[in-house]
Design a protein that fits this description.
Lipocalin; eleven-stranded antiparallel sheet; 15% helix; Secreted protein
Amino acid sequence: MMKKFLQLGYILIGCSPLFAQTEKPSDIFWKNLEKHCGKAYEGKLAEHIKRDDFAGKKLTMHVKSCSENEIKIPFNVGDNYSRTWVLTKNDGIITLKHDHRHEDGTSDSITYYGGTNTNYGFKDFQTFPADQETANLIDYASTNIWWITLDDNVFSYNLQKAGSKNQFNVFFDLTKEIKTPPAPWGWGKAR
């Protein structure tokens, strides 16, 4: 009788929600970002940021392309459509790369830099320390850390350079969808 009771106990414990496989935080983050696919939003720089190349220009993001393992988000500064954030997911780990293009669609000489999260992150926060490819391409960016936050109201893109007291932060209001901006430079060509 005791043996059957113990066997039943092991079966019940194995079926317990405590032992059930839980969804990775990165997968929750990914699904929540996919909800915005096809939508565009306007952003604002953090108040402390003073960049002449961004001053007075409309900042937009467009979650333009979503697949199981890749999300492309063009980030536009005024009529400059050169930037696309490319997120990829491999075994639950997310990578961020920056695809920069010229107006004719060709790659910029500095493109596809970024990093890969070292773990699953959080459902509303993913971080991307600079990878070796970035260090080889842009030596001064070898200690960069990018991060993205995402909740029901705000998507933020952020950058901290080691040794700098300044951060780059841009916040997009997810509660106010805007008209879809023009396609980024090079869209439709091999990307």
